[in-house]
Amino acid sequence: MVELAAKTGDIRNNELVPQHLVFDQGSYWANHFGGVFVFRDERTTTIICDSKAPGFRRSRPWQVSYLDIDDHDRIFDYLKSTNRLQLPKKKWVKKSKLLEHRCEMVIRDILRDEEENIHFDDLSDSNIRSWLRSNNRKIARDGRYGYYQDMLDKIDDVGELSSKDITKGEWLMLCRANPKHKEKWLVNRLVSRLTPFDFVSRFVFDKQGFYEVYQNYSDEFKQQVVSKLKNTYLSDKQDLRARLYQTEGGYSHA
After folding, report:
1. Interval 3-59: pLDDT, tens
2. DSSP character for 89?
3. From CA 104, how far away is CA 29, in angstroms rounded?
């Protein structure tokens, strides 16, 4: 008994059976059916996943809201209504340079599709700018780079965007998680999954999803991805997270 008491403490004061056996499970991500996001609110639970997953909209529909991961409009409405999302405003957009970062990621994604005509071992910033100037039609046909440039100009002019400027689904390309929300990491994981061209952010918040895509890259593009990660995120993880997403430390947001 003396030896047991040395391990358990005085059982006269420490109960063998805990009083509380129910532990709260907050919001989380699970690696099932391509990835399932479960957001817990005070009275409801919201599940975001592939609508083809077994049981979608069939389990407790009176208590659980199901959103298809491809339904960007409804996902945006949910994240915004629960204060989980930070909409683009001039102060934090200019300071973080998040949208400029996504612009660069778009260009690299376009270059990946054109890799037969690209020498990836010489893909410097100046060479990327030169390629942009000589491939205006290709860039315009893709549309994403011009979209980001237009949104940056509007934010610079008026300070923020309105629903007149863009559709609901497009908002997710311009937002980040609310840095003050306790679930900002999970929300940023969801946003990075919905903007898969941004492989840096996906590596930060959604490594499983990153490696799923990474294995399908060509060897040449893999080298570019590794180089970009080494020179940005891996060289100073805390600084990049604070600057782009304000997940820890960093400046005060608007």
Report:
1. 776 776 666 666 666 666 666 778 999 998 889 999 999 889 999 999 998 888 776
2. B
3. 28
